[in-house]
Amino acid sequence: MVSHHNPIGAIALPTLLMVCSFPAFAQSDGPRGIVESPCPPAAAAPPEMKAMAEKMLAPGNKLNIDFFKGLNSGPGAAEHLKVVQEQRERDWADLCHYKAANAALTGKPRPEVVFMGDSITEGWAGGDPGYMQGRRVGRGVSGQTTPQMLVRFYADVIALRPRVVHIMGGTNDIGGNTGPTTLQDVKNNILAMVDLAQAHQVRVVLAGIPPSKYLWWCGIDPRHSIAEINAWLRQVADQRKLVYVDYSSVLADQDGGMKDTVSNDGVHPNRAGYEVMRPLAERAIAQAMGR
Q1: Alpha-carbon distance 273 to 63, whole Å?
Q2: Cα–Cα dist 101/198, whole Å
Q3: pLDDT digits (tens, 9 = 90+) for 171-203
Q4: How many domains does the chain contain in total?
Q5: Residue 24, domain extent
Q6: What CATH number has the domain bearing residue 186?
Q7: Among the four residues 29, 95, 237, 263, which has the most C-beta atoms within 10 Å?
């Protein structure tokens, strides 16, 4: 997907290859403690990463792990990923990612809906730009797990005062992007986001984890975990009077993976995938607003 704190999703995907083994936090040579402006200037994405974004989104491109490894070995991509990784060591939750974009919304009409999530949400802006615009605000960050989403939930959702929040996460927890975790930890993080939203009169859409049968950056078959978490999400939505949206109904193949027609890598939707997701999202958000 894109450079640091750029909201267009697809260019940041190669960072997934790095976050599977997240390095120990290291003190940087930059500012420390309480400062006025903790975020560095955005780093421009190299051409090969922009080209990768298009390959991820254009239907019909079958991609595998060798494609992403080759991309990461390019000089421009390697340097860019190094800059992103160094920043993430200073800013674990990536609070800088949308800081400028959030500030730009000051004084404008409140969003109808904020989409909180990981790369699948971040990629929505490039996959269906006609939908993800105006008062529909995307706040996905590639590679993120639910604890990272929770840390930035106030800044990227509550402070924007949306009517509805669409929460979709868990793929990267299953992939172990920030280390080992438990199913209960994932549940606690999601419940905390729901509690924050409801405490601030923001209505909630809980999205099921999209289908996949192989997380290519970590070599994991996530189907059992996805089914378990999604069953729990549906139950929570029923108990808490939230709206649950199941994108697997339009994305899944017979094996519990993602259809080749709607995904190029078996994990992230392409433009055709986002196109079939849109009506389900619209229906769920309208239902949440009605409540």
Answers
A1: 15
A2: 24
A3: 999 999 999 999 999 999 999 999 999 999 999
A4: 1
A5: 1-291
A6: 3.40.50.1110
A7: 263
